[in-house]
Amino acid sequence: MPGDTDLSNITQQQLVDLAHHLNAQPCKCLGYKTPAEAFIAICGNVADPHTL
What we know:
This protein is mainly alpha-helical. The protein contains 2 helices and no strands.
């Protein structure tokens, strides 16, 4: 999307869907892992945020 795109017509669900789509795409720069997989590998799969 160009920087001057009017985002007032974009719904919250469309944004959530776009974020999910982008986080599920394998990336060459991440060793063909998805951003979500890379994030979990770095941070660990933390079920309880109070354990940090």
